[in-house]
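note to self — DONT lose this again. spent like an hour looking for the file last time. sequence + predicted structure for the chain T wanted, 51 res
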Amino acid sequence: MRADRSELVGLCTAGELEEAKVAAAPLLADMHTLLEWYTAALRAHGIQPPF
């Protein structure tokens, strides 16, 4: 995930915004999946997510 973020930052810095959008799509999908997993784990233990 760090490499993906690094690539995204590099593309944005270079002004390659269309390429950055393409690179960001899988990263956002991964983050969404992780967020759902963590939310389910917290709720399973009776903990309200902080967001």
